[in-house]
Structures are given as C-alpha cells and as structure tokens.
Amino acid sequence: MDDHAFHQILWKAEGVESLERCTLRSTASGWQLDGTVICLVDVPTEVTYEIKISPAWETELVELCCSNGPTMSQLSLVRNDRGQWQCNGEAFPQLDGCFDIDLGITPSTNTLPIRRLNLAVGEKASVDSAWVQFPSLEIARLPQTYTRIDETTYHYQSATGFETYLQVNTAGLTTNYDGGWQEVRPE
User: Which pLDDT tens digit goes with each residue over 10-63?
Assistant: First the structure.
C-alpha cells in the first residue's frame, strides 16, 4: 500500500443521492481521515467526520456531526491504548477490543482494516468494528470479514448478512464498492 502523505477521493453513491469528499493524510502521530457527505436520507443531510488513526491503523478518535433536516447530532468516540472505548465522554464497554470504526454512510472506514490487516492475496481475516448507523447514530459491535481476492479487490462480509466486493487504490481507499459507492474522476 502507498504511504504517500496525502490522498483525496470523491464518491457518488449508487441508488441514492449522495456525494462525499474524503481526505486521507499522514500526521506526526499516524493518520487522519476526514470527510463530508451530502446526501438525501428522508431529508437533505450533511455528515462531517474526522478520524484519528494510529501508525498501526487502529482507530483512536472519531468526531462526527450529522445535520439531518432541523436536527443536528454530534458523536465523539475515543479508543484508548488498552482498547477501551468511550462515547461522548462515557465508558462504552460494548466496543472494547474493537480496533476499527465503521461509519455506515461512507466507504472510507473500510480503509482502516484493509490497511491494518495488510492481507496477502487469498488471505482472510475477521474483525469486530464499532458500527455507527445513520441517521440515528446508533452504535453497535459488528463482526466483519475481509478476504483479499487480488491486488486491488476484497470480499467484505458483515454479521448482518450483507456482503460485497471492494476495489481499492494504492492508498487502500475504495474506488468501487459494488452496489454502493463509485469513485468520481475528472473526465
């Protein structure tokens, strides 16, 4: 995977009105993933997020704001070096032991386990992620499995029964999320 210091991508969702700008950059303490999603979830919705990631690609901090019609919700998740999570300043032991965040409104967070696991072609690994659902911002522990099919393709399965194929670029950012998001490129 490419460790270049700065990557940007624009996604358009299939089947719903949604665009997202995402930035992945290296920092002095690891990595940072930022994004803005503009979509229609019953009403016009804007989601902004900032995720701080350790050099080992483990989630450390998630700051999220969701403006859904007249409602604005904020969420802060922190994972300490012992793997314990807090949600909005309160202990959230249901997530303890999870390394990854999965924001259900974006393919950006698939990058974290893909980079952290660094699977060889043909390898498979299971992880538990802290899954944030939208627009409710409900949080649950979600078992997931990643199988690396070839240099740029992964098969993704979750305990919800959902599965898809992901194609990624050299930074590990999804370029094609089968049935989900597609990278938008200049023509």
Answer: 999 988 889 999 999 999 999 999 999 999 988 899 999 999 999 999 999 999
d(C-alpha 157, C-alpha 162), whole Å: 6
CA distance 74 to 62: 10
Q: What angle do CA 91, 94, 106 make, to 5 degrees?
A: 100
In a domain, 177, yes or no: yes
Residue-range definition of the domain harbouring residue 158: 6-183
pLDDT band at 72 (very low <50, low <70, confident <90, very high): very high
Q: Domain total for the chain? A: 1
Note whether residue 169 is domain-resident.
yes
In a domain, 151, yes or no: yes
In a domain, 1, yes or no: no
- Answering whether pTM is above 0.85, one says yes
Query: What span, in angstroms and rounded, lies between the C-alpha atoms of 147 and 184?
Result: 25
